[in-house]
Design goal:
alpha/beta; Rossmann fold; Arc Repressor Mutant, subunit A; 7-stranded parallel β-sheet; 6-stranded parallel β-sheet; 13% strand; binds adenosine-5'-diphosphate; binds magnesium ion; binds zinc ion
Length: 645
């Protein structure tokens, strides 16, 4: 007996409403679920927060066999499983932290049909125990989450992902294979299809523009970054955020600074008396596992609002109410930035992504790339190829820092969606470039003269001396060394010292010059130095007048639908929202799970606006399905009634 397509569609929609409490599918979900239910392999390329999980969770309820989800992060599996169980999907996980008995229990439950959705770490696929189970189980679907981990060309390559294809091939009956990723470059996409062995997959790529995110970039001196961040955190103390740093040491230092500064800043501004618990917790791969897990848990359960982390943090974190992500340094690629920044606002509420950068960030990145650790699995040639590719990725990231174009547009274009946003249209989520005014200055003459001066000085002086010579300094050690006799001496006397410095720095990060490492850094020619001699050489620098004051994320999004984001956020709704948030936290503590698993911020906002009093009204709230109604309906409706009195 075959079921018609219409019937399948109707069943998926009914499941969406009954279990998840959402009214309609988001872009891409319907098509992916339809293909999976029809037995076709799929590749879903959708941005973070767009709802990829649902694309295999709904089939897990409708298909006859088991659904296996391969997911890279063991520590987060428990949350994913809790989340599924909360809405009534029988789910479990298998990972190395369980005893053999525990694993056998899970296998037995899966074989008996008491578990429909089974999360496993990729490493498990290679164990005999799991292979035994899988060969005899009735597996309908294997979903590979974060599928870009299979690609060398991505940031998050994991060799354990390479075994997935073999695992599937070894199964007696080939299940449907579904791969999901938020990384969209063509190269990674091709790798996923090939390495996982997807067969004639239905590929669905949805819009990469995250319209609830406000993108900000800010050029700041290295020493000013910590203060800026502390001030931002103090002004957003009730919000949850992530700060990404380039090094482990920075994460710890910055977390300390924040914990020391923010209570003071808040006390000065007359905000609520600072509590003794820390505001920020550091996270990086060098911490002992227990401490790392604790940091993650504290963050996910809202026990601390802020995590300061290296890029080791975040993949698979489904915390939906992250209101801001700040990058303390420029990441290595747009992919990395998009993925990390995209951890803000998964619930669709307005959120802010801020990138702090300066020229020395760029120089550091280039240096890391050139001296980067070799990968023994690759030949010399391949390594050079990878390096070239990474340079190309880095250039695009530098372009993002420098562009005066709409940042949403820059990103969607990068991900190959040219034409997505018509020229002249205002970007929906908002960005600093759309809100600012720019002037670009032609600095060709300055750049050319700097280059000549580096030549005059025989590539053997630091940037301080170069600037001094160009501006015709009468300082003793300039004169003592006879530097006042070089041809470029005083040539830029008409230009301010800071401008000469800025142009020089920009030339370094653009590869016209390089600065040697060591105690006395020397400015030398970079790979592009020859271009500056070309008569057609043209070089620009932009300066920006930013909007003032920096608007909070919540108000930065006028173009979004009014029912969710408009007026209703002030006054009583806000007070009720806070009340509901308190109740959510109580319940989360009672059941020992993260608050967002009880309800997302978005659900609570919708609840505060609708103020349901009956079961039917409660079911109308976005994110409320049958399971949540029966578990929490009464308490939340009681809280609303109490509030109204
Ligand atoms: P991804 O894995 O793509 O980053 P998730 O699967 O974690 O995203 O989903 C992000 C959020 O969006 C979750 O809170 C999820 O419940 C919600 N969501 C998913 N699909 C829908 C939908 N059709 N309508 C409303 N919310 C949805
Ligand atoms: Mg996901
Ligand atoms: Zn814009």
């Amino acid at each position: 007996m075959t079921i018609s397509q219409e019937e399948l569609d109707a069943q998926s929609l009914a499941t969406l409403r009954q279990y998840f409490g959402y009214e309609d599918f988001r872009p891409g979900q319907g098509a992916l679920i339809r293909a999976i239910l029809g037995g076709r392999d799929v590749l879903g390329v959708m941005p973070t927060g767009s709802g990829k999980s649902l694309c295999y969770q709904i089939p897990s309820l409708l298909l006859h066999g088991l659904t296996i989800v391969i997911s890279p992060l063991i520590s987060l599996m428990k949350d994913q499983v809790d989340g599924a169980n909360e809405i009534g999907i029988p789910a479990a996980f298998i990972n190395g932290s369980q005893s053999i008995d525990e694993q056998e229990d899970v296998f037995a439950a899966a074989n008996a049909g008491r578990v429909r959705l089974l999360y496993v770490a990729p490493e498990r696929l290679e164990t005999q125990r799991f292979v035994n189970f899988a060969t005899h189980a009735d597996i309908a679907l294997v979903a590979v989450d974060e599928a870009h981990c299979v690609s060398q060309w991505g940031q998050d390559f994991r060799s354990s992902y390479l075994g997935i294809g073999d695992f599937i091939d070894a199964l007696p009956d080939r299940p449907t294979l579904a791969a999901f990723t938020a990384t969209a470059t063509e190269r990674v996409r091709r790798d996923i299809i090939q390495m996982l062995g997807l067969r004639d997959p239905q590929v669905v790529v949805t819009g990469f523009d995250r319209t609830n995110l406000y993108f900000d970039i800010l050029k700041l001196g290295t020493r000013d970054k910590a203060n800026w961040i502390a001030r931002y955190v103090a002004e957003h103390a009730d919000e949850s955020g992530i700060i990404y740093c380039a090094t482990r040491k920075q994460t710890e230092e910055l977390a300390d600074t924040i914990n020391a500064l923010v209570p003071q800043l808040r006390a000065v501004s007359g905000a609520a008396s600072p509590s003794s618990s820390p505001i920020a917790v550091a996270y990086h791969a060098g911490l002992p596992p227990a401490q790392r897990e604790r940091a993650q848990r504290d963050f996910v359960t809202d026990a601390v609002p802020l995590v300061v982390a290296t890029n080791a943090f975040g993949m698979g974190i489904d915390k939906s109410n992250v209101r801001y992500v700040i990058h303390h340094n420029m990441p290595e690629s747009i992919e990395a930035y998009y993925q990390e920044a995209g951890r803000a606002g998964r619930d669709g509420e307005p959120s802010r992504c801020t990138l702090l950068w300066n020229e020395s960030d760029i120089v550091t990145r280039r240096r890391l790339l050139d001296n980067g650790g070799a990968n023994e699995r690759l030949t010399e040639d391949e390594q050079e190829q990878v390096r070239r590719w990474k340079r190309h990725l880095l250039d695009a990231m530098v372009g993002y820092c420098r562009t005066t174009e709409c940042l949403h547009r820059y990103m969607t274009r990068y991900f190959g969606e040219d034409g997505e946003m018509p020229a002249g249209a205002h970007c929906v989520g908002g960005c600093v470039n759309c809100d600012s005014t720019f002037s670009t200055t032609d600095v060709s003459r300055i750049a050319r003269t700097i280059s000549m001066c580096v030549h005059d000085l025989g590539q053997s002086y630091g940037s301080g001396k170069i600037v001094a010579v160009l501006r015709g300094s009468q300082a003793k050690d300039v004169l003592d060394r006879g530097l006042d006799h070089v041809p470029t001496f005083g040539r830029l006397a008409d230009v301010s010292q800071s401008t000469v410095r800025d142009v020089l720095n920009q030339m370094v990060s653009d590869g016209f010059l390089t600065i040697t490492e060591g105690r006395l850094p020397i400015v030398m020619f970079g790979a592009r130095a020859a271009e500056t001699i070309d008569p057609a050489f043209h070089y620009e620098m932009k300066s920006i007048t930013r909007p003032k004051p920096v608007r909070p994320a919540r108000q930065s999004n006028p173009a979004l639908e009014p029912t969710t984001f408009g007026g209703g956020h002030g006054g009583t709704d806000e007070a009720l929202f806070e009340r509901l948030r308190g109740l959510r936290l109580d319940i989360a503590r009672e059941i020992g799970k993260p608050p967002y698993i009880v309800f997302s911020d978005r659900s609570l906002r919708d609840m505060a606006t609708r103020r349901p009093h009956t079961d039917d009204e409660f079911l109308e709230v976005s994110g409320v399905g049958a399971s949540k109604l029966s578990k929490y309906g009464e308490r939340f409706m009681q809280a609303i009634a109490d509030f109204e009195e």
